Amino acid sequence: MARYGDRMRDPAAGFWTLVGRALRRRCPRCGNGPSFETWLRMAENCPACGFRFEREHGFWVGAMIINTILSFASLLAVFVGGWVAFWPNVPWTGLLVATVSVAGVTPLLYYPMSKSLWSAIEMSYHELEPAERTAANARVAQNSP
Ligand SMILES: [Zn+2]
Questions:
Q1: Whole-number Å distance between alpha carbons of 52 and 111
Q2: By the 8 A CB rule, do 50 and 137 touch?
Q3: Spatial CA neighbour of 120 closest among 34, 11, 38, 41
Q4: How far, in Å, is the centroid of ligand 1 from the Cα of 33?
Q5: Residue 11 reports pLDDT greater than 80
Q6: How many angstroms is it from 71 CA to the middle of ligand 1?
Q7: Average pLDDT over every residue of 15-26
Q8: For the chain: N or C, fewer Cβ within 10 A?
């Protein structure tokens, strides 16, 4: 159980530590609690430190932007990679099927990563507000035996 004092920066960890936690789908604040219950369902709060992942209304717009960038980059890589690899006899139908498949699968594949990454990136420059810290500590205290 992690509790943070009022004097230290919350979270105390630096940018790359936060990103590392996000890539492991852990709470960016403490690194202990899993941030996802299933592949597509994020927990509301960290079970270890009580941090509420959705910090404000509209918070996940940044995650949507990350997901869109990653998905389009994958789509472009498959399309251009296939085009270059098979030039001059490009199998357009096969390339179209592959590209559309990538466009359908990658947003789901990147979904948890984009949310946890956004949470970590946002937290790296926007530390917890006192009210968030108080609420998180109250959740932890409520779950303690
Ligand atoms: Zn946590």
A1: 18
A2: yes
A3: 11
A4: 5
A5: yes
A6: 28
A7: 95
A8: C
